[in-house]
Amino acid sequence: MGARRYQRQIGLFLLTILLPAAVLIGLAVRMMRQERELEIKRAADRRHDALDQVRRELSSRLEAIKLEEVNRLIRAPGSRPPENPAVVFTATVEGDRVVLTWDFPGEPASPEFARHRQEGEAQEFAKRDPRAAAAAYRQALAAARAPAETAEARLLLARALAKAGGTEEAVRQYRALLQEAGDARDEQGIPFRLYAAERLMQAKREPEAVLNYLRGEAGRAAQLTLPEAYMVRSFLESAPVSARVSSRIDELEQAVALARDFARVRPQIDSGGASKPAWAAYGKEPWLVTIVPASPPVPELLLAVSSAKAAPPGVKLAVRTLGGDYLGEDFPGLHVEWPPDRFSERSRPGLPAGLLMAAVALVVGITVFGGYLLLRDVNRDVRLTEVRSQFVANVSHELKTPLTAIRMFAETLALGRSRNEQARLEYLETIVNESERLARLVDNVLDFSKIEQGKKIYRLRPTSLPDVANSAVRAMQYPLVQQGFTLHLDIQEDMPPLEADPDAIEQAILNLLTNAMKFSGDAREIDLRLRSRNGDAVIAVTDRGLGIAHDEQKRVFEKFYRVRSHESHLIAGTGLGLTLVAHIAKAHGGRVEVESAPGAGSTFSILIPTERRA
């Protein structure tokens, strides 16, 4: 009947909860799959539209930058730095060769200046006459017509004066060169002022003026040529300033590499056609490089633009990328690298996926929780049925044993089969002891019933534990002797009295002694000790029998629980004795402790406070 009821419960559960939940989950999964497919298509469309927009916007930005740079060069052909920060550099294209700004030959010197300069160099290096060389350089300074000639003459004059011993005048010339040379440069593109700063540093003169000049040069790092950037970095020790110059050097070194690779890069640029050259990607950043056709007075130019500064906001351009999109033929080798969440799912009409998932999760949760409750109830009923069956069997066995002995000896006496007075006395004593054993069993069952109903009452009064222990020993004397046990009673002198229910304490001791007898195995010695320890009265019962595993020790006080082992399975019992002991100890404000190990016996200790605690 019970099994059929459980089957009906499970069938009802499957029909009313699991089946609708499975249908709902199936529909939800199908809807989510369809939504996912639509979202993938929408994301692909958004990605395509975004790529077209980036292509158009980037083309517009680059064309505007190119036009701005051409107009700047038309307005001021001699101006050096680009005005737009996105422009890395511009260089003249001569056939298949790129001419960088510092590669341009300087203006030819005037004949008179060149003659005096040549004469001074001959005096300085060939004849080793620095004084005569200084005189020739003074004539060159007087003959100078261009700023570059004036700056060069001062530099040569200061060098000759230093060699001739005119250190102070040489310093004055270097100082004048540092202050007045402007942007005059030599044929390598290095400012003459930088040479003056170097000489003054070596002479340890004008340190503040030199440092201010070098800092100013570093501050306009974007305008430095490669040779002067190398020199400025070698003079500066400040990390932030040196870092800016080093960054400019990296750019210029990449420009030199681009000039070397121009023959390879140009076909990519020309792939866009003569009317609209393409923007080729070059370098790590990368740069976007194109050719600007000649527009007199501006010659054909190579224009390099920083992709990071020219790209639309939120867009990153790269040469090689795993998840990027190719920008097209107008940008050979260039890809767009999208942010991870750029094309993620957006809000749209219909049931949100989050709400749908929450509903599915709620249904699944209710289903699982309902199944858990059902299985818990079923398992609890099954366990309760098993426990009841086992309890009835154990109680029946426990009742049958003393009843059998009582009936046997009572019938013997009633039929007059024993003529020996001593034997009759033994039969009567057996009947009395078995009756007491039967009474203890019934008392345990009744007390447990009262405890379960919350009706058990303990009547506390001043109690002598030694008297209670002796009474329990006397009650157990017969079964102990019958089974061959030796009980060692050890009572500490001057045991303090305590407030307790003597009948309940005696019952607890009897239960512990009975338990010790059952689980002693082949051992036949039991110890009962009474001690006073740390304000507690301690009642300890020790056997030398089977012992209890550590993980079982906390469960032995549960109702109906019995240690699972082959030896204990053969031992009869109700599973209530230790439960009652623990309840009695707790009702007296105390506790029960157990010390045991398999094969080493067990010690159960009842600890009861000698003074009632609040």
Task: Write up this protein.
It contains 17 helices and 15 strands. Among the domains are: 2-99 and 271-337, no CATH class; 111-186 and 191-223, Alpha Horseshoe (Serine Threonine Protein Phosphatase 5, Tetratricopeptide repeat), CATH 1.25.40; 457-609, 2-Layer Sandwich (Heat Shock Protein 90), CATH 3.30.565. Strand 1 (87-94) and strand 2 form a beta hairpin. The two termini are 52 Å apart. The protein is elongated and about 165 Å long. Helix 4 runs parallel beside helix 6 and helix 13 crosses helix 17. It is of the alpha+beta class and 614 residues long.
Distance between the termini: 52 Å
The count of DSSP E runs of length 2 or more, i.e. the number of strands, is 15
Roughly what is the average pLDDT, rounded to an integer?
79
Beta-strand percent range: 5-15%
Features:
single chain, 614 residues, alpha+beta, Serine Threonine Protein Phosphatase 5, Tetratricopeptide repeat, Heat Shock Protein 90, 5-stranded antiparallel beta sheet, 5-stranded mixed beta sheet, 57% helix
List the helices and strands and how they pair.
Elements: H1 2-75, E1 87-94, E2 97-99, H2 111-126, H3 130-143, H4 147-164, H5 167-180, H6 192-203, H7 207-219, H8 226-235, H9 239-260, H10 262-270, E3 280-282, E4 287-292, E5 301-306, H11 307-310, E6 316-318, E7 325-326, E8 335-337, H12 353-414, H13 421-453, E9 461-463, H14 465-482, E10 486-491, E11 498-500, H15 502-518, E12 525-533, E13 536-543, H16 566-569, H17 577-587, E14 591-596, E15 602-609
Parallel strand pairs: 10-12
Antiparallel strand pairs: 1-2, 1-5, 3-4, 4-5, 6-8, 7-8, 9-11, 12-13, 13-15, 14-15
